[in-house]
Amino acid sequence: MPKIYDISMTIEENMQVWKSYEQKKPRITNVQNHDEGKPHESLLTINTHTGTHVDAPLHMLAGGATIETISLERLIGPARVLDLTHLKEFITKEDLEPFAIQRGERLLFKTTSSLTEEFMLDFVFLREDGAKYLADIGVGLIATDALGIERAQAEYPTHRTLMRNDVIIVEGVRLKDVEAGNYTLVIAPLKLTGIDAAPARAFLMA
What we know:
about 210 residues; alpha/beta; two-stranded antiparallel ribbon; 4 helices; 12 strands; globular
């Protein structure tokens, strides 16, 4: 059996969410239970961008494709984890060039966000020039361990550059215990339709 690394965030009420906003935290409510003589059931209220999730182009592009248009074939297959934990602010074209990235690759960015379970306002992000470089190569998927692939950029050029070039964006993977290298990636977003994102279970096999 291959070694399996669960790289998903656990969905819970006090989990890490974007900018630690209370309104973005999931809510889990018991709606009936055994004390009432009924089966135990819970109601989950959750933002589609909670935890480990897949973005659809609609998130950043008016009229963009919705989450059900992303096929499982694109979310499952060979992938490479890049160790970028030495970077302090952002990921640039120059940072990525030494990795000899190839067309169609699925890439996972391991940054300092993997080393904490708290939201980091100054998380390391993919800068616009890095996004353009990867889009020009034609990578298939980029997964980052931060809850966003960019910050502090007007008009969201990283998201929009990748989405306009059919590069899938996955945010919120957990890579603390994963070494750089080659793996088989499996990402299974909830089977939702017509919306901008979906939470996902994600794991790597070595």
